[in-house]
């Protein structure tokens, strides 16, 4: 199938075709998260999704295109989860509740598997520049969501006017990814809480001193 024909077929997907495509992407996402991108074969994806090779090639030119769809799927899942828990945060208590949700998510998996986006980034960033660019864009969006929460905390007088929200959000996101990695290697989700507690303590070092007034 030529690239033009392939793109045309995707744009004319029926509801049944869309369901098949989604089933393939979901199966690939699970396999790639558990056993890695490189070791996951198309045949394994077909078996897990109960689809045929002809169905696969109706929707994807090759494995690389499937990988890019897996990245987008995982990003949508993670960023939707983060927005839901961060979009109204404007206080220390709200930030702590987000931390608690992150830790609970880690506890439910007993620290296993790590971050879906982080795992993909570790495996693909040095070998696939298109994947790296896509992952960088998604991480930038995640950082922006975190920065938005910190900016609302600043606007609410919880943090000083002179904070660099983007820099603090970068540190907080690094704590998330580091917490995932440490929890994964130790199979101990408590390390996620330790990591996030340290990052939040640093953020709160930028709280106004007693009696200090904000400019608003």
TrEMBL record:
InterPro entries, sorted: Homeodomain-like_sf, HTH_TetR, Tet_transcr_reg_TetR-rel_C_sf, TetR_C
Domain of life: Bacteria
Manganese in keyword set: no
Keywords tagged on the record: DNA-binding, Transcription, Transcription regulation
Residues in HTH tetR-type domain copies: 18-78
Pfam families attached to this UniProt entry: TetR_C_13 (PF16925), TetR_N (PF00440)
Keyword Phosphoprotein: no
Protein name: Transcriptional regulator
